[in-house]
Write a structure and sequence with these properties.
Helix content is 39%, strand content 18%. The chain is α/β, with parallel strands linked by helices. Strands 9-10-11-12-13-14-15-16 form an eight-stranded antiparallel barrel. Strands 2-1-3-4 form a four-stranded parallel beta sheet, sandwiched between helices. Strands 6-5-7-8 form a four-stranded parallel beta sheet, with helices on both faces. Helix 4 packs across helix 7. It is globular and about 80 Å long. The protein starts with a helix and ends with a helix.
Length: 506
């Protein structure tokens, strides 16, 4: 459509002069200007195509069979996007080139449609793409593989539909109808996955490509990625020996490879470790043959389900060995007394905002849903109630500069005081981990809080990224008894969604 309107603009005068004799011809020419939409890689292409239908043309940017992690658009590719009406992509943690071309697309009036708009992403893992595509390999700060959970594919289709409808309201009715028909198919696929894994005999599956974290989270499974195994290169004898031990200790029967794994690699592992290999297709790019044969997102995800059930329909007496344990890191509260050191107030310098309003207005609901999926001992509503008690405060902002703390309340009033360090206290928790409170007290009499304590998972001097704070006028000892109420603050320049994403990533 964009080309058509550019052409009409250039030929405007000619069109006016010839209008008397060519009215119908010009009208048909304008109506022929359907939308042209470029989709980054295969799932985005398939989702968008099912939404757009006959309303336009959807073109696949990443060539069939190409690993989308390796893809960098050429000058010709960028020109192709600039000539389109819209670009649909998954997320900048997948298509890392999108932010670099976004400004030029804005200048060309290309709508940029983000399929994960409004969604929070899980943290990435070091195991992702352990097969090196480059000297450094690929590591995503946040995991972009959202589409591999059908329940989340539904959300991506809804996000694409809504953004396209907003950009092109004249097509909104068709987009809505097309998307409804496709969403019905995706919801049936989602139900198949839910039904298959509700009473799984084992929930852990071992994969060479750690792309299935969302699938695992959404359906109550445990993805166990193995490092040091490439889809392209034979594993070393030392790594094979380690894998033999791993297979025997954990009762492994299948290791899942991605679609493009060399058969010789899979055969070597199967022969040497006495296990079977199966395919879990990450759908980052179907081959041209697969597309010609009519395969698509739904058919491939059904194949993935069949492959996964070879593991989940079989009992594994040793599965408990694969259950992930909480890492004993300083952040999680595992440290020695001698590692703790006093911290200056400057560690918390800056302008900070309370997260309580974001909990109240629903911005943090996705965080609560994530917590429920990670630990179903509480529902999302119960987690929210727990954090409502913890986060509740009437101090909406805190400003810390030098030795001065300024507390800004919901009614707009402010209270300030200068503070000095009063040391720290190490607390031992019932769960077996520990925490450190860093204590400060007002230098002089003040109508601000006399006693303040910080806790931020740090145990020695370092700049804080967020913190829990305890404040009052009774005593430091009284504050140390407080375990249920811990107002929490993040930098004032972060949006609510950015804070929610930070919470999920940590």
């Amino acid at each position: 459509m964009k080309k058509a309107w550019k052409w009409l603009a250039l030929m405007g005068l000619t069109g006016v002069l010839g209008a008397c004799g060519n009215n119908d011809e010009n009208e048909n020419s304008a109506n022929d200007g359907d939308l042209t939409i470029v989709a980054s890689f295969y799932p985005m292409y398939d989702f968008t195509k099912n939404i757009v239908g006959e309303e336009g043309t959807v073109e696949l940017l990443v060539p069939a069979g190409t690993d989308s992690h390796d893809f960098e658009p050429s000058a010709r590719d960028i020109a192709k996007i600039q000539e389109a009406d819209a670009l649909v992509y998954n997320n900048e943690n997948m298509e890392m080139w999108v932010p670099d071309v976004a400004k030029s697309l804005e200048q060309e009036n290309v709508e940029v449609i983000k399929a994960t708009e409004g969604m929070l992403l899980m943290p990435g893992s070091e195991e992702e793409h352990d097969h090196d595509h480059s000297e450094e390999g690929h590591h995503h700060e946040l995991d972009p593989h959202v589409w591999l959970a059908p329940s989340l594919a539904v959300k991506e289709v809804e996000a694409i539909r809504d953004q396209l409808s907003e950009s092109y309201p004249e097509h909104a009715e068709a987009f809505e109808a097309n998307a409804a028909a496709y969403l019905e198919k995706l919801e049936k696929l989602d139900q198949k996955y839910a039904d298959a894994f509700t009473n799984a005999k084992q929930t852990s599956f071992v994969t060479q490509h750690a792309a299935f974290s969302y699938l695992a989270l959404e359906y109550g499974l445990n993805q166990v990625p193995i490092s040091g195994v490439s889809a392209e290169e034979e594993p070393s004898p030392a790594r094979i020996a380690e894998l033999k031990d791993f297979v025997e200790e954990n009762g492994i029967q299948y290791i899942y490879f991605e679609e493009n794994a060399k058969s010789s690699v899979a055969e070597t592992l199967a022969n040497e470790t006495k296990i079977e290999t199966e395919v879990l297709n990450p759908l980052e790019g179907l081959t041209q043959d697969q597309m010609d044969e009519g395969e698509d997102y739904i058919s491939v995800m059904e194949q993935n389900l069949t492959a996964l059930r070879k593991t989940t329909d079989t009992e594994n007496p040793k599965e408990s060995n694969l259950t992930p344990e909480k890492e004993k890191t300083v952040y999680n509260g595992y440290f020695e007394d001698e590692d703790v050191a006093e911290r200056p107030l400057s560690d918390w310098a800056g302008d900070w905002q309370s997260v309580y309003p974001y909990l109240e207005d629903g911005t943090l609901d996705q965080v609560m849903e994530y917590k429920e999926k990670k630990d179903p001992s509480k529902t999302a509503a119960e987690y929210k109630a727990y954090y409502q008690t913890g986060y509740q405060t009437d101090v909406k902002e805190i400003k810390i500069k030098g030795n001065t703390m300024t507390f800004i309340f919901e009614d707009g009033s402010e209270k300030s005081a200068e503070y000095k360090s009063a040391g720290y206290e190490i607390l031992d928790y019932k769960a077996g981990n520990r925490g450190v409170r860093f204590l400060f007290e007002a230098k002089d009499d003040t109508d601000a809080f006399k006693y303040v304590q910080f806790s931020d998972h740090g145990i020695s001097p370092e700049k804080s990224g967020h913190f829990h704070i305890y404040y009052g006028d009774d005593s430091q000892a009284a504050l140390l008894e407080e375990m249920d109420h811990w107002p929490t603050y993040y930098p004032a320049d972060l949006s609510g969604m950015a804070i929610a994403q930070e919470m999920l990533a940590h």
